[in-house]
Amino acid sequence: MKSLYKYAFVGLLALGMSACSEDLLETSPTTSVDTGSLMASTSKAIASLNGVYRFLYTTGYTSGWEHEETGIMSFNHVADLMGEDMIQQKSGSGWFWYDYQFNVKSDYTHNAGRPYGTWNYFYTIISNVNYLIASEATMQGDEAERNYIVGQAYALRAMGYFYLAQYYAPRLVGNDKAACVPIYTEPTTKETKGKPRATNAEVYKQIDTDLAAAIDRMKKAKATRDSKSHLGLAEVYGWAARVALAEEKWKDAQTYAENAISEANKEGLEVTGVSNFSGLNNAEAKNVLWGLKIVPDQTQQYASFYTFMDPALGKYGATARIQINKDLYAMMGANDARRGWWDPKEKENKDNGYQQTKFKCSNIATFGGDYVLMRIEEMHLIKAEAQCMLGDDKGAQTTLIAYMKTRDADYTCTKTGNKMAETTNPKIATGSLREEIVNQRRIELWGEFGRLYDLRRLHQGVYRTTEQGHPGAGIVKGIDNPDSNLFLMTIPQSEFDGNKALDAEKDQNPMD
Question: Given this model, what pLDDT does residue 34 score?
Answer without folding.
Answer: 56
